[in-house]
Design goal:
This protein is an all-alpha fold and 274 residues long. It contains 13 helices and no strands. α1 crosses α11 and α4 packs antiparallel against α5. The protein is globular. It is a multi-pass membrane protein. It is found in: Endomembrane system. Its main location: membrane.
């Protein structure tokens, strides 16, 4: 594929509609997340507490839109006004939890099916991050931190509402706050948001916007699908984080201080023995 053909393809990708297929993929993986988080008692819980199960699933599906809307001074329930998306999410929730012989869940968990849905989900995520950055840029043209924040929340809002989503199911896990232990998905959304901000608000990226958009999709698919699901690498950024922490966040100084203190203590102990 030559450069002109690829650019034309990239331009078409930026215009893809998310409804209904990508919405279905997103809803399926969200419902699977809720069911897997419930553990072995998922079916029993869904039979005993269907409203709680539905509410927690809907919160996961629409978390990004609800969080970003609340922070931007818009109605938090605005994402639920799209009846078609709400019906899709509800239908998927029912299929994952209530189909006879658990056929819906088994099909969704089947690896080839899950891989396809995961690829579609990452395309959907890129769209959400991109739209979040653009929306924040219109409201706050010079607030780059807000653009990155909204883009991140749009792309991975479910991780930030996990504590509330579990609370709807009667489980209180205060240590599950995303800011304490950010997942790779959150870090990837931050990187993608920064890339889109630089592309939109600066001249540092000279490539066409469509190319940048497809590059971010490739970044999500490679690290979230291929690297995580196939190779089993869930934290590909960990070596870089350790290096940055060691250099800029006091790691080297703490290690040096500790080593110096241990040496000093050894000398004191030696003198006492003498």
């Amino acid at each position: 594929m030559d450069a002109e053909s690829f650019l034309e393809f990239a331009s078409q990708v930026t215009k893809w509609k998310m409804y209904p297929y990508f919405d279905v993929a997103h809803s399926v993986l969200c419902a699977l997340h809720v069911r897997d988080d419930l553990g072995p008692g998922a079916l029993a819980f869904s039979r005993k507490h269907p409203i709680s199960c539905w509410l927690s699933t809907m919160l996961v599906v629409f978390a990004g839109g609800m969080l970003s809307a609340a922070l931007l001074g818009e109605p938090p329930l605005a994402p639920l006004k799209n009846t078609q998306q709400l019906l899709i999410a509800t239908a998927v929730w029912y299929l994952v939890f209530y189909t006879p012989f658990d056929i819906g869940y088994s099909i969704a968990k089947f690896l080839p099916v899950k891989l396809v849905f995961s690829v579609m989900k990452e395309i959907y995520r890129c769209k959400k991050v991109h739209d979040g950055v653009l929306h924040a840029a219109k409201l706050y043209p010079n607030a780059y931190i807000i653009m990155v924040l909204i883009g991140t929340l749009k792309g991975n809002g479910a991780s930030f509402t996990k504590i509330i989503e579990r609370l709807l199911r009667g489980v209180w896990t205060p240590t599950s706050i995303e800011t304490l232990q950010p997942s790779f998905t959150t870090k990837a959304c931050i990187i993608a948001s920064v890339v889109f901000v630089l592309d939109i608000k600066s001249d540092l990226i000279s490539a066409p916007h469509a190319f940048v958009y497809v590059f971010v999709i490739g970044f999500f698919i490679y690290f979230k699908v291929f690297s995580s699901m196939i190779l089993g690498i869930h934290e590909p950024m960990l070596p870089f984080e350790n290096l940055i922490c060691a250099i800029f966040l006091g790691g080297i100084f703490d290690y040096t201080t500790k080593a110096f203190k241990n040496t000093k203590d050894d000398k004191v102990d030696t003198k006492k023995k003498d």
